[in-house]
Design goal:
Blueprint: H1 6-19, H2 25-31, H3 33-37, H4 41-48, H5 58-65, E1 70-76, E2 79-90, E3 100-102, E4 117-125, E5 128-135
Antiparallel strand pairs: 1-2, 2-3, 2-4, 4-5
Helix pairs in contact: 2-5
């Protein structure tokens, strides 16, 4: 016989389990532990905070931001240019260490702070970030 609270308890357990399975930086770092450990401490900290910089390779960007929403390739003079697109939020607060948060992460900011959805474009040339552009949503 099923007790009336059992389905609710099962649903709550499933929600907690799913919440722990997000594609956070910690999870992505565990997947690429060897690559992460080979980086200097400053870059490790940047990845854990979801920040990227020019010179990062695609695996480092993936660890920091997750899977891009879109990816496109275009020919370049020296190799192939690849552009990853992310959707997310920009945190305008002065204390923001990682101002861009992707929608890949389940928990990425206060629900009470007003932020606009934005786009982040990361351009690679021969698997090295050469440009990072953030585009604000028009209000």
């Amino acid at each position: 016989m099923t007790r009336p609270w059992q389905p609710l308890l099962t649903a709550l357990f499933a929600l907690l389990l799913l919440a722990g399975c997000g594609t956070t930086q910690d999870h992505r770092v565990r997947v690429y532990t060897r690559d992460f450990n080979a980086l200097d401490v400053e870059r490790q900290e940047m990845i854990r905070e979801g920040r990227i910089d020019t010179g990062f390779n695609s695996r480092m960007v993936y660890m920091a931001l997750g899977e891009p929403r879109d990816s496109r390739r275009e020919p370049a003079i020296r190799g192939e240019r690849v552009i990853w697109t992310y959707a997310g939020l920009i945190d305008d607060s002065p204390d923001a260490r990682a101002p861009f948060r992707t929608t890949n992460d389940l928990i990425w900011g206060s629900p009470f702070r007003r932020n606009a959805y934005d786009r982040l474009y990361v351009a690679f040339l021969n698997d090295s970030v050469v440009a990072i552009e953030t585009v604000r949503r028009r209000e």
